[in-house]
Amino acid sequence: MRIRFTKMQGAGNDFVVLDETRGLLGLSPGQYRFLADRHFGVGADQILSVRTASDPGVDFQYVIHNADGGEVEQCGNGARCFMRFVREQGLTDKDVVRVQTLAGLIAPRMNADGRVTVDMGPPIFEPARVPFDDAGLDAQPTGGWQTWHLALSTEAESPIVPLAVLSMGNPHAVQLVPDVDGAPVATQGPLIERHPRFPQRVNAGFMQVQSRGQVKLRVFERGAGETLACGTGACAAVVAGIRLGLLDARVDVHTRGGVLTIEWAGEQGDLGAPVFMTGPAVTVFSGEIDVPDEG
Ligand SMILES: N[C@@H](CCC[C@H](N)C(=O)O)C(=O)O
């Protein structure tokens, strides 16, 4: 099957974007993996599918697959690219669109400077909804909130890591590190991603706080490995930092691929306040590719 695609990136987190508004392509997990493959396919951290929505008042449906072929609930950098895609392809002329995702409704807005701001909805803190299995674990009071001290393996010398656990529609575990460039992302990332306490696996964030308004962040993403940036990871890290008493309500997150600005008014009384994320969304190229049949 020959398909048209658009390659996009947001702060270096890269995507293959597919227009399925005129009909579903019916791709299998293996075919998503092929598109994401950097040697045999196009190459991407995630595949984004743009579909029509059935609910009145909702403009589009946005479906996300990780590079490993698994469907996931949410993708922040992808949401900004989604917005640029539907505008550039003439699928809408609206400045704000309402988009259905597996995690609920989000609302990307195109700014005059070309960046995109996304209302990502509220963070989720209840362990069962992350999902995170907290049975028998004691939360450690930390800076006005809590962290969970998890042994990363059953070996005697296993590191025990304090993690802030929350969901932005998808699961995140965030730890504070003194120096993000020297952080053990490659070694601890896969262990945290597949820790048995996270039944649907988890995205593992490593955050260095530089000031109350500036952090550096690296994320080992579930289903994709370390990426140059993770939008939901940036939202989760900032929300965690605010709840831990370390950050103000507006924070610039410096990733390896660019800067994302995250705003959350939750500590002013309403933990259900939405998180806003602003950052770049860039089209790289478009093309066609033959996707092998499976079987
Ligand atoms: N890169 C994304 C997150 C994509 C999904 C994530 N890997 C997961 O499995 O939850 C972002 O920008 O948020």
From TrEMBL:
It catalyses: (2S,6S)-2,6-diaminopimelate = meso-2,6-diaminopimelate. SUPFAM superfamilies: Diaminopimelate epimerase-like. The active site is at C75, C230. One of its GO terms (cellular component) is cytosol. Gene3D superfamilies: Diaminopimelate Epimerase, Chain A, domain 1 (3.10.310.10). It is found in: Cytoplasm. Catalyzes the stereoinversion of LL-2,6-diaminopimelate (L,L-DAP) to meso-diaminopimelate (meso-DAP), a precursor of L-lysine and an essential component of the bacterial peptidoglycan. HAMAP family: DAP_epimerase. This is Diaminopimelate epimerase. It comes from Xenophilus arseniciresistens. The lineage of its organism: Bacteria, Pseudomonadati, Pseudomonadota, Betaproteobacteria, Burkholderiales. The gene is dapF.
